[in-house]
Amino acid sequence: MSINSLQKQTNINIQEKANLIWEIATHLVGLFKPHEYGKVILPMTVLKRFDDALAPTKQAVVEMGEKLAGMKVEGEARDGVLCKTSGYPFYNTSKFDFKKLVSDPDNIESNFENYLQGFSSNVKDIISNFKFTDQVRTMADGNVLFVVIQEFISAKGDMSPNKITSTDMGYIFEELIRKFSESYDEQAGAHFTSRDIIYLMTELLIAPEKDDIKTNGCTKTAYDMAMGTSQMLGCLNERLTDISDEANLTCFGEEFNPETYAIAKADMLIKGGNASGMMYGDTLNDDKFSGYEFDYIISNPPFGIDWKREKAEVEAEAKKGYDGRFGPGLPAISDGQMLFMLNGVKKLKKGSGRMAIIQNGSSLFTGDAGSGASEIRRYVITEDMVEAIIQMPTDLFYNTGISTYIWVLTKGKSANRLGKVQLIDASKCFVKRRKNIGKKRVDLDDKCIELIMKAYTEFENAVYTDGELVVESKTFDNDFFGFTKVTVETAQADKDGKAILKKGKPQAVKGASDSEIIPLSEDIDEYIAKNVLPYNPLAFADRKKDKIGYEIPFTRLFYKFTAPQSSEDIFAEIKALEEEETILMKELFGNA
Predict the structure, then answer these.
(1) pTM, 2 dp
(2) β-strand partners of 485
(3) One domain for residues 167 and 221
(4) Are residues 495 and 369 in the same domain?
């Protein structure tokens, strides 16, 4: 199946289903504010999905629950039997389901509470993170609990797994979250990344072993450190199973937003995947996967977000040096995205692990030589982990129009990539959307992804085109991005203009310090002699103050000079505009 075919699953039917479900919120008007609708609709959708999934085995589970209670079977033994009976890694032993709840409207609140308490502990955890108990009480007090449940047993609320696949359910959740975000005037992109971007990231991750997976299948692990609703992990799993029926991916993720975490865990439970690998917590100060290593890491962590809340724990982790996650250094406290990158690097499987992570432009160049950000770049480049960085088109995300970059890092570069970094400018590779979604005005279609992947896999200095689509690839030695920041002083001079020496060393003029940025590939003494001394014969380098820095001047490396318009052409344009203005004025006012 092509990537485009996968994307087309986000079609009008999915949107219509999400719209129908969201329409149930009309019954909440007056009782809840518009930005609170999602706090009801999202957990109710999850519960109804569970209810429909469990329906075929419902009676058998209720009877087995009663039998085990009589036998005083508890704990893991009870859970194991009931999960086996339900056919899912969760169950509900309450005699009530959504249909039975509406048959007794007078006792809807107490019966619904009995229903919620009948779920297995993993579902109760999901309900708890939705903070749903308060919403239920408000609905009951406002006499809409019955109506809402009744709406969910209508055709619009039918979410049976045999009618809606797990993949499509993921899309529906995305649509619902987007609607919730819009009603809350919140950035939708804070919760999920559009699938066209994710599909490109998955292709980049699996590219080196795609043929092998096709032939032999695979058993892999994947991790998302800012997983949102876990759709990145879901897309990666889809792609692997599309390539081979023998592909097996075990997923792990951590998420700090309780509602999106709850959806991620619910989605994994329905799929029968590794729901216990979905963790609630703040990755930066509460790492749930310390000591783990993964084959794949795929993530879009928050950028432009400070790490003040996590400061104490992050700094304590940094003191562990390379035994911890932040050994190379700490970025500016105003921007924590590079901390996520280091967290991922620490968790890459030695010799083979691969990571695709989204960053904004600041990760490329912020921070002076010797700063935390520069040291992080120095570490990942000199340790030969940076395989490629791809500049994406602007207006590709729901919540931002800025330039973004996919970094591909690995602990297992192929022989031809050793000691090299590939930069790919894909900023001009996009198709315009007919209808914007938030700030997302462009998409990556099949042709876009194929062109970017062609540039990536060929690993050449070349320009690739397909119609109006343009992608440019350039490769550089690792050292190309490094430089020495050299402090240059001006020597005090005697009346003859000669430097004053003490113990054979020149004495610097106070307040006259300057610095030179000298590429690692150049000899520093030769550089000073050629570029500094001709203009300041009294200059000398204080080499004790040397600092090594690394930056990736992406924009400058792909800059294309455009000659300014000639004065004759500008004059001709002005003259033409004046003539056009004269004609318009005559049309408006005649000869008056």
Answers:
(1) 0.88
(2) 517, 547
(3) no
(4) no
